[in-house]
Specification:
Largest sheet: 2 strands, antiparallel
Number of strands: 2
Helix content: over 70%
Number of helices: 26
Order of helices and strands: HHEEHHHHHHHHHHHHHHHHHHHHHHHH
Strand order of the largest sheet: 1-2
Oligomer: single chain
Distance between the termini: 110 Å
Radius of gyration: 38 Å
């Protein structure tokens, strides 16, 4: 069954690559092809979840390229493929005539295939490859409307921020090799020798925090809202942002060996859930509210990875994927149909299109963590037991859950409350679709929101014990009745207060509210740090080049010239003189020999007589 796990990744990647390269609008039926591929991938995902195949092909000596359905991936394959299918189905009517449907569909398929490769990767090599492909395609999708400067800048910000954090994964790979994991398999990472295990764990955490838009890398997600709503729905729910949280859950055995790194991870997740929850509460833009809530909700997953709640974090990822995909699709339909993202201008929009309003209300109630819906149950599963071991983390998590109720109920109240000036006006949207027929806009988000509402069954004791045993992770902690009652009462009371007291402005200074709304600019100081560091490094290298390398090259050339001149004086000139003297002697002897060659026979006889006499005289002398 090895072909099953390879088809999960290669089918969308290869098909998407062909579609993206066609380039010509309308050359192929892009969306029907994309929907068919996504549906086939969903079937393959269901089969792979049951069969749990694995396969590896040799790549380098001792290092293979392997894919396997193991650990948390056993719960994520079906949600990822289902969300991809729903988003493509929805987007079939949301791409305008000026845009290339083939390019959009192809990039979405490659994007989803890279996420499936990330989920099934059994080693750092396939993980790195799929991680990079996912980052590259996210850049292309965020900047899909490349004629807009804001979209291009947002895509560049997302790419540079996540790529900077991705360096941690390369550090982790190098540390794994140095620490003894020659095959770079993920299962070998807990056995790394110190201090390489600490370095590897820290590198993977940094890469995951960047991908999941956690503090301090959170700011890129705000600007990523410049992309199409379908891209946001996929990016925020089942791919890209979810990949960082999944990675931390997948390498939890390594984090368990590094208690310091695990504790830092848990605190970063809790602080992100709290801070970005405040940001979401302060938003006046629907997509920005949903984006901030994504970072906040992923903070719970990071908290779970740091505290050992692998199953609880995975269940939260699954429920959040369906919830956020439904919310972004409805937001995209309203954006196309009403031409605005501002919550004030969307007042009463849920009553104009009642079907979409009902879908949005259900999904937002799930996001708000209202009992007995899924995110309430999964959040309680993550926080269960923390109160006894770490009261501070439990308090932060509870406060973040309360903020989730605030921003979830706030969004529902605004879209359902009739505006004072009458219902909102239907007009040309800021996205390129130009209008979505209600019948085509409702089914995909409706199915997703319904799934999100009931996915809390994953946390039921009977279900969670069997699923955790099936995927090979520890059984989740079960909230005590007191903890469950407290969280349910807190969510209900908070929702009631927000609903009935929502017309009054929050008792927060205007400057603070303005700062929280502009969370995308928080990254400017952070973005300047690497820029300044790179500029300083470039200046130092230029100085080294000018003052060291250039002078060294000139000094070497001068030494060569001086050596050549000395060699000429000491060797070449005497040698040339000897050659000239020898040639002069040989020439003189030759001229002397030519004088005896007169051509007269009697002179030759006389010379012979003289020679014989000389020879006889020599013999007499010798004797």
């Amino acid at each position: 069954m090895a072909f099953l796990v390879w088809s999960l990744v290669l089918l969308p990647v290869l098909t998407g690559g062909v579609l993206a390269c066609t380039g010509t609008r309308g050359a192929v039926p892009a969306f029907p092809v994309g929907i068919a591929v996504a549906a086939a991938d969903l079937v393959a995902a269901v089969a792979a979840t049951v069969v749990r195949p694995s396969s590896e092909v040799p790549l380098f000596r001792g290092i293979g390229f392997g894919l396997a359905v193991e650990g948390p991936s056993g719960l994520l394959l079906v949600p990822v493929t289902a969300v991809v299918l729903a988003v493509l189905w929805f987007c079939a009517t949301a791409i305008g005539p000026r845009e290339s449907a083939a390019r959009f569909t192809g990039l979405m398929l490659v994007f989803s295939g890279a996420m499936l490769g990330t989920v099934t990767a059994s080693g750092l090599v396939p993980l790195l490859v799929c991680w990079e492909v996912m980052g590259a395609t996210s850049w292309a999708l965020i900047g899909f409307w490349w004629r807009r400067n804001t979209a291009v800048r947002a895509a560049n910000t997302a790419l540079l921020t996540t790529r900077s954090a991705d360096l941690g994964m390369y550090v982790a790979a190098g540390s794994a090799l140095a620490g003894g994991a020659g095959s770079l398999a993920l299962d070998e990472l807990p056995e790394l020798a110190a201090p390489w295990s600490t370095v590897a764990a820290g590198g993977l955490v940094v890469a995951a925090l960047g991908k999941s838009a956690q503090l301090p890398f959170h700011f890129w997600l705000s600007r990523a809202m410049e992309g199409p709503s379908g891209v946001s729905a996929l990016l925020h729910s089942a791919t890209m942002v979810a990949a960082g949280g999944y990675l931390l859950l997948r390498v939890h055995p390594l984090l368990a060996e590094e208690s310091g790194v695990a504790a830092a991870t848990a605190w970063i997740g809790a602080l992100t859930a709290l801070v970005l929850g405040l940001v979401a509460v302060a938003q006046r833009d629907l997509k920005q509210l949903l984006a901030a809530s994504t970072s906040a909700q992923l903070g719970f997953v990071v908290l779970a990875a740091g505290t050992g709640g692998v199953f609880g974090g995975t269940a939260h990822l699954v429920a959040h994927a369906a919830t956020k995909a439904a919310l972004f699709l409805v937001a995209g339909a309203w954006l196309v149909g009403f031409g605005t993202e501002r919550l004030v201008e969307l007042r009463g929009v849920g009553r104009v299109r009642g079907g979409l309003g009902g879908v949005f209300t259900l999904a937002a109630a799930v996001l708000a963590g209202l009992p007995p819906l899924s995110l309430w149950a999964t959040k309680d599963g993550i926080l269960a037991g923390l109160g006894e071991h770490d009261a501070a983390l439990y308090s932060l998590g509870t406060a973040a859950a309360t903020l989730a109720t605030l921003y979830g109920v706030k969004a529902v109240r605004l879209v359902l409350t009739p505006p004072p000036g009458g219902p909102p006006v239907v007009r040309q949207g800021t996205e390129s679709g130009g209008g979505l027929p209600p019948g085509r806009a409702i089914p995909a988000p409706a199915l997703l929101s319904a799934a999100a509402a009931v996915l809390g069954v994953l946390t039921l004791p009977w279900t969670s014990e069997r699923l955790s045993r099936a995927i090979g992770v520890s059984a989740p902690a079960v909230p005590t009745p007191a903890e469950g009652a407290f969280s349910a009462a807190l969510a209900v009371v908070t929702a009631a207060v927000v609903w009935w007291w929502g017309r009054r402005p929050p008792p927060v200074p205007a400057r603070i509210r303005s700062g929280l709304r502009r969370w995308g600019v928080f990254g400017t100081p952070l973005a300047r740090l690497p820029v300044r560091a790179l500029a300083a490094l470039a200046a130092a290298l230029a100085t080294f080049d000018d003052r060291v390398l250039d002078r060294g090259v000139h000094a070497l050339a001068g030494a060569g010239i001086r050596s050549a001149r000395a060699l000429e004086r000491a060797v070449e000139r005497p040698l040339n003189g000897g050659v000239y003297t020898l040639s002069a002697v040989v020439g003189g002897l030759g001229r002397t020999a030519r004088r005896a060659q007169t051509g007269l026979l009697h002179q030759y006889y006389a010379q012979a007589v003289v020679a014989l006499l000389a020879l006889a005289l020599l013999l007499l002398v010798v004797r």
